[in-house]
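Task 17 of the worksheet. Students: predict the tertiary structure of the chain below and write it out as structure tokens. Keep your answer in the requested format; marks are given for formatting as well as content.
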Amino acid sequence: MPFLRYALIAGAAARHAQAWLTAEEEAAAIAELAQAAAGRADLLAERAGTALGFGEGRPDAARYRQVAELCIAAGADPALIEPWIRVGRERAAAAAAIPYTGLPPGGLLLLIAGLDERVRGAAHVLRAADGGAYLAGAAGLR
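Model answer:
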């Protein structure tokens, strides 16, 4: 299950990447990453490389570098990092190419309280999907 192991590595690295780590915190982070990797230096290298590539030029690039440094300290295979940097750059470019619509994927679901309580009740749902917005109860929507 390399996907699960990679997720454990990515989660631990993200959790421990902070602006300032004490020596004890850094040692604990490295130990947790090494345990999560269970000898999979390739997965540590994958996370280090994708973090470096994805974080290039971002305002939080230092955090991505720290993720990579923790993975390297935990035993990432340095020879495998470079190809993953390219993958991280490609993922960053793909993410940047998605236009911001102001809506989360799949639309928007909002609870609106106090909207004309006398006619429609105390709370209603506004659903916006594919550019449309509807009040619950209107046009037979529930």
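Marker's comment: The longest strand covers residues 123-129. Helices lie at 2-16, 23-37, 41-55, 61-73, 81-97, 117-120.
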